[in-house]
Amino acid sequence: MKLWGGRFTGETNELVNEFNASISFDKKLYKHDITGSIAHAKMLGKQNIIPMEESDKIVEGLEGILSDIESGKLVIDDTYEDIHTFVEANLIERIGDAGKRLHTGRSRNDQVALDTRMYVREQIDVLSDNIRDFQDILLRIIKENTDTYMPGFTHLQKAQPVTVAHHFGAYFEMLIRDRDRLADCKKRLNYCPLGAGALAGTTYPLDREFTAKELKFTGPTRNSMDSVSDRDYLIEFLDAVAILMMHLSRFSEEICIWNSNDYNFVELDDAYSTGSSIMPQKKNPDIAELVRGKTGRVYGALMSVLTSMKAIPLAYNKDMQEDKEQLFDVVYTANMSVVLFAGMIDTMKFNKDIMENSAKLGFTNATDAADYLVKKGMPFRDAHEVIGKIVLFCIDNNKSIDELSMTELHAFSEVFDEDIYDAISLKTCVDSRITTGAPGRASMNKAIAYYEDYLS
């Protein structure tokens, strides 16, 4: 069945049919297509555009189709051009000529725009919920590790001591922004294009406010040409997901580094690791690596849709069909990435002694040692030079600063006293950082309270 055959006398080339068809992927939209059609049918009856008894018959038929698809009784047939054709053909088969009235005052252009908006809106909620579940896991780890010391890095060089709680808090903050972006996208997309027709509305007295309300939109879209040709909301969603995946990819890179033999900061659970076909000793961080790799896949989808849209004149053009496969792939990839990454982090074990020792031997307390001298009256530039020489001495002698004796320290400056050891302990170094957002216990307690409130 075609919805457009009347004007044609010749048969369409079979390769054209195959190339043109979208049902192999847009069948994912069956629920949204049927739900939108039900709202449209109710509105047609309410407005006396079609008899109310036919409106009711259409609604009943559509509800039956939806129920049969979800139960497996009705299988979507890929020989149809698209999901819209499949639904309408089955409706006509079930209720007769009344089904032919469903498309009154509607085009596939506003229909697919509606379906896609509803799908993206739904998937924003699904993805946001999965991110929130991940944040629950992160918060548990944060609360359990406020005294788990580790090196903080810049340029992949050990810089200053932090805690696992503080480090994971940085990712918690990224995920807050990710959920905010998704919520913002949902707010902008939540306008209903149904009733825009092919591009110029319709002569039928449609009640677009009714269908918008019926489908839980804020209201109808304001310009019919923009309604059918707009994919900003989809691009914005892909952009938000691309940023989310970038955050997961950064986290993945750190897990890969921490899991390496040279670092050995963490041990991944067997359930989230794989082995080697030739090297029996290997335990590979495949989930982290796959998430890192699939980030490029999401970037590609964003660029693909942007490129498809960049030279399309108003209003609808068939190029826009290319958005669906990219969208569906990104939704699957992002949700799987969040869920599996969260599971990996939830079951991961920290080698706390190794992390703490790495912070000590990495001279992450060097800045605090310099600050100690400054507080004793030494100019900062002189203090910087003294500590630099001490670090060089420690490297040559395979020691940490806090392992040096008072005699060794006095060789560099007589300013040092016994209180230096407390001043450069990792606990002091961390807890003395009291500014908002710092890793100190007081600051972290405030952050934890905020996170608990955020998730409540």
Can you give me a brief rundown of this structure?
With 456 residues, the protein is mainly α. The protein has helices at 14-20, 23-26, 30-46, 52-71, 83-95, 108-144, 164-189, 208-214, 224-229, 232-259, 286-309, 323-347, 352-361, 366-375, 380-397, 406-410, 420-423, 426-431, 441-455; strands spanning 149-154, 157-163, 191-192, 219-220, 266-267, 349-350. The chain is built from 19 helices and six strands.
**Span between N and C termini?**
52 Å
Taken as a percent bin, the fraction of beta residues is under 5%
Number of beta strands? 6
Could you tell me the radius of gyration in angstroms?
30 Å
Coarse morphology: elongated
The largest sheet, given as strand count, sense and whether it forms a barrel, is:
2 strands, antiparallel
Mean pLDDT score, rounded?
A: 94
Q: Give the helix level as a range of percent.
A: 55-70%
Unreliable sequence segments? none
Write out the strand line-up for the largest beta sheet, numbering strands in chain order: 1-2
Structural class: mainly alpha
